[in-house]
Structures are given as structure tokens and as C-alpha cells.
Amino acid sequence: METMADRDDETRGLLDVTLTLNGETTSVAVDPAERLLDVLRYRLGLPGTKEGCGEGECGACTVYLDGLPVMSCLVPAYQVRGRRVETVESLTPAEVANLHASGATQCGACTPGVAMTARWVARHPELLEQHTVRQLMAGNLCRCTGYDGIVEGVEADLAAAAKTKARGARS
Ligand code: FES
Ligand code: FES
After folding, report:
1. Distance of alpha carbon 60 from alpha carbon 52, whole angstroms
2. What is the pLDDT of residues 48-101, one digit of tens each?
């Protein structure tokens, strides 16, 4: 049933979008031209996702859309209606500990995007059958680390995930 709020949004030209955001059902009114990146940061109070290039080139704005990493600066917000979005705020400190320990988090501009892609790689070790860690992380640009720390952090995550899996198989 249409509510007063829906009618107000229509008057202002906004679209109502309901999505699952970091595991919670969330509704937000968005402008048809608004990017997911801006809706997350400025309408939904999740500033962890960063803007670098704004053109799909740097990966700083990486979030998961239905479980896959996407550049949120390229996604029109209305397109996430009924879908699942996860941001860097969904990661636990333990999930980024290896990146910190390997020196992959220096100025921090790239870190949220790097952390999201790194976690995705760690959750999908089968990707390593066809790609190197460096290739899988190539969509996240970093001007500080020379990438060695990032690769090292992801490899530590993969090693930890393999150890947990082996322990589970033995028990
Ligand atoms: S800000 Fe989205 S890819 Fe650079
Ligand atoms: S840590 Fe500075 S851009 Fe990556």
C-alpha cells in the first residue's frame, strides 16, 4: 500500500529502495542519478567506503553486491533494490589483522577497498587455481605499499583459512 512517505518521495523525484545492507533490511530514498557509493556514505551513514577516482579505476569504493566485489562508484543506487550489499563496516578487526601486520595499510586511502577484495579472495581460495594473488588484487590501486604488503597480507589470510579448513576436516 502506498504511504504518505512514498508520495512525498515521488513528489521529490526520489525512488524508494529496500535492500539487505550488512545483513539488515534497510530502506532508503535515492535520487535516480545517485551512485551507490554516495548513498552508502551520505544517506546511510557508512563512510568506510572511500572515493578515489570516481571512474571505476582505483577500487577504493569496493563493496560486495550479492557476494561479488563491485565498484560502488559505478553502480546506480536504485539498482540495488532487493539485493544484498556488504561494506567494509561488515568486516571484523580479525579479518583485517593480517593486512595491518604486513604493512598493507599505510595512508589508508585504498585500505577499505583492498580489505574487501582481500577478504573475498581469502573466502575463495579456488580462484588461486587460475590467478595469482597479485592478479586478483590488481583492481585495487595503492600508491604507498608497492603491493608487496598487500600480497603478503592476503597470503597470510589464505594460509589461515587453509589451516582452519584442515582442522575442521580432522575433527
Ligand atoms: S572510486 Fe570507484 S573505482 Fe575509484
Ligand atoms: S596505503 Fe596509501 S594508497 Fe594504499
Report:
1. 6
2. 999 999 999 999 999 999 999 999 999 999 999 999 999 999 999 999 999 999
Q: Which amino acid is at 9?
A: D
Specify the CATH number of the domain 91-170.
1.10.150.120
The CATH 1.10.150.120 domain(s) of the chain lie at 91-170
pTM for this entry: 0.91
Q: Which CATH architecture has domain 4-89?
A: Roll (3.10)
Task: Look at the alpha carbons of 128, 130, 131, 132 in this order and tell me if their dihedral is positive or negative.
Answer: positive
Which ligand has an atom closest to residue 49 CA?
1
Q: How far is the CA of 78 from the centre of ligand 1 (A)?
A: 18
Question: How remote is the C-alpha of 159 from its chain's centroid?
Answer: 22
Ligand nearest to the CA of 107: 2
Q: What is the pLDDT of residue 170?
A: 79
Q: What is the CA radius of gyration of the chain?
A: 18
Give the residue among 133, 138, 167, 168 at the shortest CA–CA distance from 152: 133
